[in-house]
Amino acid sequence: MMQRPFRLGTTSFIYPDHIIPNVQKIGAFFDEIELLVFESKPEAVIPSRNNVKELAELSRDLDLTYNVHLPTDINLSAPELRLRRDAADTLKRVIERFSIAPVTRFTLHLEMDKPMPSQAGIEAWQNNTRQGLELLLPALEDPAMVGVETLWYPPYLFKDLVNEFGLSVCADLGHHIKYGYDIHRTFELFGPKINLIHLHGVDTRLKPPKDHIGLDKTAPGEFRKIMDPLKHYTGTVCLEVFNLADLQASLAALAQTFKNIVIGVEKPAQRH
Fold this sequence. Notes:
By secondary structure, the chain is an alpha/beta fold.
């Protein structure tokens, strides 16, 4: 057992309710909450300015910060310029909306269609993504506030883009297990640019493997692969699960390796 070196968070959808009630219920047990803004249409699904103001007040009351998962119903890497422009405009609007809240990072999906394209297709995707980022990033004071999430394709495919634009990286370790990528290699590729980790269980016995479940469902060997980099990681680790049972099971699994993990998040609020 060792003291956890990282900040600990989870998502804003542990209870089947809106963002603010979730933060009110679980915020006191965590250092950071991942605000899920998966959808951008209709406009009303994006938290309002009053919502964000209330989140800022809750952050002070509960002593926590936020990271924001940007919408996934748009595509900054789309082949069509019109769609890339629409994506950039939407992302800028969402990022601006959260400007008054203590947000540490905005997590971005750089979407790629399956199956894996040819080398020419990969280069076209990289060029489209570059043009999309050129539309988005001039609006930001600090491009490193945007973290590219590791998805189903090899993380090295966006390494040059991360370096070129000064972005950060969100390493989704569950995705690494699900799709068979080397976690250690990703840390070698991106090093200190990894300032957010998504952590969730993966049941590789199922075909296809099921992810975003409790860490207790992960096979022991895979679980060790996930735990090893956390022992020296000082950024934020977010348990990216979406119900209370998976959250409780994940906290209990973490507590087997690290001290100062609060397990009973339904008990009266108390800081760790």
